[in-house]
């Protein structure tokens, strides 16, 4: 009879250990941004890393091990020195923070305008912890080309600021 009790206790401990592993493995909050892609359409069906300066850019960040609420910050930086911009400079007007609830996708749309300088840029999405610190981030490099019929202007102004002259 003692052997049977030991077998039952052993089975119970194995089941309890397995349950604890499952509970610990299930992260009850956001863990990380798994991927970031850019697209020419809001549904993410037309992936691209090259855009005309008058085309909207949609950035879609996919989160993994997520449930609950999270804040995700998206922004765009210059990847090279160009007229009015320095490498690494955050493009004014592109920084946005959104809160998502029980969703595994954070989506940002950037509209730059026809006067926006052509060049190399980087779009970054950052998963923010409760205290606002960056928990995880993903980036994608993109190329902006001037649109047909638009004339590249100098003296860059932030998106939506109109003609700088």
Which properties best describe this structure?
about 160 residues; five-stranded mixed sheet; three-stranded antiparallel sheet; elongated; disordered C terminus
Structural class: mainly beta
**Spatial strand sequence of the major β-sheet:** 2-8-7-4-5
Give average pLDDT, whole number: 81
Q: Which consecutive residue ranges, at least 5 long each, have pLDDT under 50?
A: 160-165
**Compute the gyration radius: what is it?**
23 Å
Count the strands? 8
Task: Report the portion of residues in β strands.
Answer: 35-45%
Q: What general outline do the C-alpha atoms trace?
A: elongated
Distance between the termini: 93 Å
Range of helix content: 10-25%
Order of helices and strands: HEEEEEEEE
Biggest β-sheet description: 5 strands, mixed
Q: What is the count of helical runs?
A: 1
Structure description:
The protein is mostly beta strands. Helix content is 15%, strand content 38%. It is built from 1 helix and 8 strands. The strands form 2 sheets. The chain has a 5-stranded mixed sheet, with no helix packed on it. The chain has a 3-stranded antiparallel sheet with strand order 1-3-6, with no helix packed on it. A hairpin with a 5-residue loop joins β7 and β8. The chain is elongated, with a radius of gyration of 23 Å.
Short description:
This protein is 15% helix and 38% strand. The protein is mostly beta strands and 165 residues long.
